[in-house]
Specification:
single chain, alpha/beta, Rossmann fold, seven-stranded parallel beta sheet, 7 strands, globular, disordered C terminus, Cobyrinic acid ac-diamide synthase
């Protein structure tokens, strides 16, 4: 079974789609794995960046009982299950129907692919709940701002609640510090607050604010394939984060389980 990894935060604008796309590309390029990317965010940012890998099945179909099979690419790359505006309708469906169907379909994909990466919507609802119930690891990107840290606390409560009730295999792999500005006193103070409250989950690496990253994704490329010198430092940071993240997902450097934050 391949790992099923969620990129999620109950606050938008923290870079979860960016990191989901880059992580999938890193698994394919560096680890030579076959990766299925599921985009559950109706904004479809991941789908735009990975549109050349579209597999012919939309994300809404994963919430139904019958889904056409998706074969892993022969060249160990990516198969995209893209988002659409119809995903918003899932929130109005009956949970007891759509969540088991989604979990079953994701389990099938995890048997066929080396990894399944899920980009989630920035709010708690049926889609995020279904993803958490189907996954075994969560990566929570965060910007070092007050409201973003509040969003992490909300996300942790949700993760541990799902683990207790529905999915004992689920764990928070890490919190990733994204778009870090080393010159910002406010961000440095927020980082100290984050380390104080969530030390066991915070990855000891961070991704700085880098123009090369959005530029690369706009071109449909991972940042390490962007032919610019400015992409080099960004690539080093991103790859370091993913190496440490993968260690935690594989279990070689796992944070100590704790109860949900109060």
């Amino acid at each position: 079974m391949g790992n099923v990894v969620i990129f999620g935060n109950q606050k938008g604008g923290v870079g979860k789609s960016t990191l989901a796309v880059l992580y999938a590309c890193w698994l394919a390029d560096v680890r030579r794995q076959s990766v299925c990317v599921i985009d559950l965010d109706a904004q479809a940012n991941s789908s735009k960046s990975l549109r050349r890998f579209t597999a012919g099945v939309e994300a809404t179909q994963l919430f139904g009982q019958q889904m056409r099979s998706i074969s892993p690419p022969s060249d160990k790359t990516i198969a995209l299950v893209p988002a659409s505006k119809k995903l918003a309708d899932i929130e109005l469906a009956r949970a007891e129907m759509v969540i088991p169907a989604f979990r079953s379909n994701v389990t099938t994909l995890a048997r066929d692919f080396d990894a399944v990466v899920i980009d989630t919507p920035p709010a708690l609802g049926l889609r995020l709940s279904a993803a958490l119930i189907a996954a075994n690891a969560v990566t929570c990107p965060i910007e070092l701002e007050e409201y973003s840290i509040d969003g992490v606390a909300d996300m942790l409560r949700t993760i541990f609640g799902v683990r207790r009730r529905y999915n004992p295999q689920l764990r928070l792999a890490t919190i990733v510090l994204n778009r870090f500005n080393p010159h910002s006193l406010r961000q440095k103070a927020a980082m100290q607050d984050l380390a104080l409250n969530f030390r066991e989950f915070v990855l000891p690496a961070r991704i700085s604010t880098r123009s090369a990253i959005p530029e690369a994704l706009a071109a449909g490329l991972p940042v390490w394939r962007l032919p610019k010198s400015a992409a080099r430092e960004a690539s080093l940071e991103v790859m370091r984060v993913f190496e440490l993240l993968q260690q935690r997902i594989d279990g070689s450097s796992e944070p100590t389980p704790v109860d949900a934050p109060a």
